[in-house]
Amino acid sequence: MENYLKPTPFFDYQSPTVQAWMQQQLxxxxxxxxxxxxxxxxAVRDGISYxxxxxxxxxxxxxxxxxxxxxxSYCIPKAVLLGAAARAIGIPSRLGLAxxxxxxxxxxxxxxxxxxxxxxxxxxxLYLNGRWVKATPAFNKKLxxxxxxxxxxxxxxxxxxxxxxxxxxAAHMEYINNHGVxxxxxxxxxxxxxxxxxxxxxxxxxxPNNYSLEKDISGRS
Length: 221
What we know:
Blueprint: H1 16-25, H2 33-47, E1 49-50, H3 64-70, E2 72-73, H4 75-88, E3 93-102, H5 107-113, E4 117-128, E5 131-135, H6 141-146, E6 173-182, H7 187-197, H8 213-218
Parallel strand pairs: 1-2
Antiparallel strand pairs: 3-4, 3-6, 4-5
Helix pairs in contact: 2-4, 3-4
C-alpha cells in the first residue's frame, strides 16, 4: 500500500501549488477523510475544465501541479490531481486506464481524433473504508449541462465511473477495454497507446491549438 501513498513527479502533492490549492479547498471541511476527498473531488471536477484538445506528450503535463497551473486538462491529469490530493491526506490512490466509446462527442473532436473511441481514458481509485472505490472527476458541471447529462457525483462509498445515458435516455458512454491500474502514471505506456490510436496527431509538430470542447458543444467557434 506504500506505493499508493508516496509522492512522485506526477502525483506531486508536495509541490507548493498543490499544497496551497488543497488548503483553500479544505477550508471549513471536517477532518473526516471521506468528507475531505468528496470536497476535493468536486474541486477537481468543476475547478479544472475538461478539454481533451490540450493533450501534450510532454511528461510535465501529466502532473497534478500542471493541471492546477493551466486550469484546464483532460481525464488523466484530472484523475492524477485527485489521486495526489488523496495521498496528501493519507488515502491510497491508483490510476485506472480504459478505452471508452463516447456517443456524444462533438463532430469536431471526432474529426480531430478520427474516432469516437477515447483511448487511455483515466480515472482514479481510492482506498476508502477497506476497499477500492472508483472516482472520475473528468467532466466539469458546465460541460455536462451543455451535453445534457448529469455531472458525476462521488459519495466516497460507491463507484463513480461514467454517464451511461443522457438525461433523455440516449447512449452516452461505454467502457470497451480495460488497461488496469497503476501506482504511478505509466507515461510511455499511455503515449504508445495514444500513438497507436491517433498516430496522425503526432505526424506534425504543431503547437497547442485553441480548441475547446465546451465551445464545440455550445456551437461557439
